[in-house]
Amino acid sequence: MRNLVRLLCAGWALAASLAFAADNLVKDGGPYVPTPQAVVDAMLELAEVGPGDFVIDLGSGDGRIVLTGATRHKASGMGVDIDGELVELANASAQRLGVAQRVQFHQQDVFAADLSRATVLTLYLLPSMMERLRPKLLLELKPGTRIVSHDFDLGEWKPDRSVNVQTPEKYEISGSWTSTVHLWMVPAPVEGAWTGNMDGGRGGPFRLELKQRYQQVEGRLVRDAQIMTLRDARIEGTRIRFSAPGPDGRLETYTGTVRNEMIIGEARAGGGPAAVRWSASRVK
């Protein structure tokens, strides 16, 4: 009976939250619902947050995600929330915990926030707000930035990885709950044509023609008038990977790093140990 009452209360709480959010979506994307500490820990661990990271939390509430990143992982960061009282509370906590030099919280609309410093971005916002934010994230975040979200995803941009987290409380109600944590790596933009060469001129120059949808890539490699469809093509942050037949006809696996308008990497035939360097430059 207690479990039934708890479940009904949770349902009422969530329904009230969603109803409130529907009326206030333009303002802030939903009411303040704190992320359970077990989920906070899982989010930061999944993103592999460390001392070199700058964590930005959109809809930061009491600041617990950024503050945990600072105190447990030695990261720096910033939180953004529309609620001035929560921002004051979070800044007071940063002072009390001795991390105010590395962490600040600002009262601001999330759409106005400057995301350029982020190496990790965290979110616990309703689905409609997540989808509205997606173009901003792709435009402002650097390739390789990790995005971590509690429960809600980014719509058609599918996560690179998702994990379930057991937590003893949710919606401020104790019990046995499950949360989902999603991870994305912001992909480098690679769509278009590239001209490439192998070290030593092996096989002659080639042309890469790539189409991209978030981290998914497809395309073809053209060499000596031969057109070869790429296999297993994917980009993770600034790292691209695909397979195609090499100059001798054997299947080669290409890996590379995207740097500005260049890709530099290695190709290996048949999974063998010998690697050949390759590079490609974007066709203007």
Supply the helix-strand structural class: alpha+beta
Q: Main β-sheet: number of strands, strand sense, barrel status?
A: 9 strands, antiparallel
**Order of strands across the main sheet:** 11-10-9-8-16-15-14-13-12
**Overall strand count:** 16
Please tell me the total number of domains: 2
CATH class of the largest domain: Alpha Beta
Which overall shape is indicated by the principal axes computed on the Cα atoms? elongated
CATH architecture of the largest domain: 3-Layer(aba) Sandwich
User: Could you spell the SSE succession in H and E letters?
Assistant: HHEHEHEEHEEEEEEEEEEEE
Number of helices: 5
Global mean pLDDT: 88
- What is the helix fraction of residues, given as a range? 25-40%
Low-confidence stretches: 1-28
The CATH homologous superfamily of the largest domain is named Vaccinia Virus protein VP39
